[in-house]
Structures are given as C-alpha cells and as structure tokens.
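We emphasize that the prediction below concerns an isolated chain of 631 residues; any contacts that depend on oligomerization or on bound cofactors are therefore not represented. The input was used exactly as deposited, without trimming of termini.
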Amino acid sequence: MTMQLKKFLAVILCVVLFASILTACGGKETPTETPAGTEESESSSTGETAEEQEEQTTEEESGQEVADAQTGQTPRNETLYINGLQWGPINDFNPLSPNPNNALMITQNETAFVLVWETLFMYNMLDGKLYPLLAKEYKQEGNVFTIKMNPDAKWSDGTPVTAKDVKYTFELHRDMKTGQASMWEYIESVEAPDDETVVITGKADNFNPLKIIEIFPRVYILPQHYMSKVVERNGGDPAKVKSDRMEDFIASGPYKLFYYDETKIVLVRDDNYWGQAESMWGKLPVPKYIAHVIYADNNAGSVAFQQGEVDVSQQFIPEIWKFWEEHDLPVSTYLDEPPYHLPATMPSLIFNLKKPGLDNVAVRKAIAMAIDYDTIAKNAMSGYTPLMSEVPPCLMNPSDVERSLIDQEKLKPLQWKGKQIEEAKALLDEAGIVDTDGDGYRELNGQKLSFKVECPTGWTDWNAALEIVAAAGKEIGIEITTYFPEASVWTEDLQTGNFDMIMTSYSGVGISNPWTRCYQALYGEGGKIKDAERVYYNYARYYNERADEILNEIPKVSDQNKLKELYTELNEIYLKDVPFVPLMYRPHMFYEVNESVWTGFPAKDDGSNIPPTCCVGGYGVAALYNLKNVE
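Result of the prediction step, given as a token string:
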C-alpha cells in the first residue's frame, strides 16, 4: 500500500488508521480503532482531535507501534506483560460466576486482584494491614462495623460509587447464592444511611469479627445501576444471572477490557480513573496496557519470560538463579537468596473422604507417611521451599508468627517426616489392608486400592510433585495414577467433588490467617458441607464437630495463651484425621521480574512496603504507580 493511499484514506475515513507494524499473522495491514480509555476530545464526533489523528498517522509512517483493538496489538513500551495467572480461554466477565476462569480480572480472595473491579480495602501481606481503596476507613464497636466510603470513587461510566452499591452488592451475593454468600452466616444486616456510610451488623448468635473483616479486601463492590439490569434481563434466576457473560460490564478500577481471544487478554488503562484523585493514588498507573498471554504450559511461559516477552511472571520457573548467574539477564526475584520467594501457602493433596478406601484414615495416613517431601522440595520445587523434614507438617505455614501459635513439642508424636515406607506398610498391615491376590496392590473390603490424583496440565511443579506421590503409593501397595486435565476441568472437579485425590492450595495470606486457612481446610458447617453439590473450600468435605467448635471460638479469643491451646488442639485433630496433606511450602504468588522493558518493581528492603503480588493483588497494585521504562 502506498504512502499516498494511506494519507488519502486517513482523510476520508478520519478514524481508520493503518498500522505500519505488521501483526504476527499474515503480514496484512490492519485498521485500528481508538481503544476505550484513551483521551478524547468532547468536540470531536470521532473521539480524536485532528492533532491526535495527525500524530498517530505520523507514528505509522515512522514505524512506531500503535494499539490495535482488532488484534490486541499494543506498543511494547506501554504494555506490562504478565503470565502465570490465566491458563485457558475466558468463560465470562461475571464476578458472580462460580467459575469465571478470568484470573487477571476476577480473583476474589484476601489479596483480590483490583485492576478492573475494586474492593473496599487492600490487604498488604508484608505488614498484615488494610489500606484504603473504595473505602477510607472503618471502625468496630461491638458487633457493629461502620465503613466510610471515599466520595471521589466513581464507576467507569462516571457515576459515583456509593454506600448503596455496597449494600446492594452484599445482598446480591446472598440472593444469587454465590460463592461469597457464606458471609451472610455472620452478617445480620447491611445498611446505607447515606451515600458515604455503610453499617454492617454482625449476628449476635454467630458473631465472628474475622469473617466480617476479611470481606473488606476480598469482595468486589458492584454497581447497582448496572447489576440490577443484569438481574432483570435474566428474570432474577440465580443460575442465569451467574452464567451471564457480562461483556457489557461496568467497573471502578484503573483498567478495562481492550481485547481478548483464546491466546491472550489485554486491558487498557482508563484515563478517567477516579484513583488519580489526591484522596487515593494522586496519579494514574504507569503502564497503559496490561496483557496476559495464555501459554500452553510453564515451559512455554518460562521461555517467553527469558526472552523478555514477559515482564512479571507468576509461575514456577526452575533454577531461576541461573538467569542472572549464568545468562546475565536482567532478571530478579523478591529475595536475592534462597528460597527466593516468600513461603506462605501449602499446596496440598486433598483426599475425597466420600471415596471408598480414602474414607479410611489408615490409608490416608499411610500415603502421607510414604511421600518423599524432600525430593518434592529439591526437584519439583527447585528448592523454593523449606524442607518438610525441617518444618514438620501441620495447619500452620512456616512463619515464626504462625508456628508460635502452637505447642510444637506436643504435636511431634503425630507428625510424619516422609519416606517412611516400612512404617506406612506396618500401619496398613495392622489395619488389615493387605494384598490378597498377589498383584502387588492392597485391597480394602474386597476392592483394590486404586486412585487417580489430579492437578492442571502444564503446572510443572505440581505435576512433578504428584508423580512423586504416585511413586510413593506404589511403594506401599496403593495404585495411584496421575491425571492432568485443563485448568478449567480441574476447577470444576475440585468444586463438585469429582475426584479421588486432587491438589490445591488453601489461603496462605490474609488479615484473618492462620484462622482462615484452618477454616477453609476443616470447617464442615455442622456437617452440611459433606453433601453439598458444590463447595468453595473444605474440598475433602471433612467434618469433625469439635473442629467446628474450635473454629467458631478462635475469632472471639484475644488471650494468647488460650489461643495457643485452641490452635494446638485443632492441629491435633487434623494430624489424627489427615483429610489432606501439605506437599510443599509455596509462595503466595511466584514473583519473577525481567527488567528488559520495565523497571522499578518491588523487592525486599527497598523501602516501598509493596508486597510481591505481581502488581495486581491487594496492595501490590501500588507497584503499577512506580514503574518506568528502562529506556
């Protein structure tokens, strides 16, 4: 195409610009459109001033990259690339969905991702504090929590975010029976006496301040004026509302959707974002675009990261130190020395207690004893974890803060070290679980002990860990076959109980931990969870009446000695019943950065107090305001 023809078309069509940098497929020039979130002139019907059009045309001619909403192409020096969060095509854009599979945009936990939707507060795992976001502050008086909203907060359509949106959001989760609806077991009412005040009253007969406070940094606040239309167009049917794709969503965060397909998702900065007010960040985040390429597996993602195609990686990369020691790449981790990452979560082997064979505690305990945890740490985890033999398994993570909450000497007789093959065999023999037909595998009630163990394909560290689990099973006469489906299948299996053994992680960080982790792992809701059609925690569907009592009591206890007694007893119950087995100590998020394009990422002792949550989780989003181009 000639230069003269380009200019002619630019004049005739106004908003149709031709990219001089060809896309990866085909080599044809593709028309571009002004992406949502870019500055617009109110006097121009095309959304661009003549000066802006001329500037972009000049950029085309000079070979500079321009954004293209048709292909998702964006200028490299304006785009922050992240990987390791999204492992399959996106299902929807609905924060109410039971399985949105849209991690970059929708991750509601203690460090919720707040690029698109926002929470009342942000949690900082480094200091354990909540930082303001949509809300400025809160105070507790008895069982009443009063929250003050930030009056500067706006939705992406310019309307204010008010206390009425908060009230509506909480009640919507209740009415639609979402995964977040369990908060209503602890909430009596939510009121909005004015636009800037939210009053949450906890239930007097089930008061749990931790369960109320943990909502603040976890649950996305949704716009009533938009969500009421979603409810209406689905006839108020909870199932239909939760399955609505919501591609026309309205949110409050600094980014909005620019492009997505089966290979990637791209967000574009909303230059009208309310957070540039002095009451919040006082400026916009630096990257104009945030992109996440959906790689086939960890290996493909690692290669892209090494080549500088990814800036922040949240995935397992073996022997990361070789990137700078042997290859002299501008790569770093949050910690300069082993274990390179902050250990927080405990990826675990979950037993389905409703499966014949696995409903027997001797089988579960034998598997736990036989696993070679040190090999998992050294080989599957590249040493990014303390050894289980040095930090024996229990409900607490390896931190001194959590371990100080238990009587470690009292728990030692119940703990296992791993690779205890003969002891595991003796345990099974004593329980009468033996091989009667000589095929090498034991039977229980006439049935061969044969199970599948599951985690997502391409999660190389988890895949390797489960191969070690399978090998341990064979050594003690239990057949364990690995099964690695797509991540979306794994999620569905996890929540619906369609598994024998499955690998997942319970909460590693959060303002209410370690209680939240214990709750997620063991709380049986008085036995109700055993037969639930779908669950979002306690995937083993475990129930112990005393464990439930302890979990209900802990949030109300302030005496440290009493707290230690309760946590110790809870760990004793866990170690005796073994509904799941921690396989490793993993960081809350892997965090590796390649500073080929961007610099200014958080690191330990840099004075920023920004946690290594890949610039997207909780207070970690503050990193986006400190980045700068290397050039």
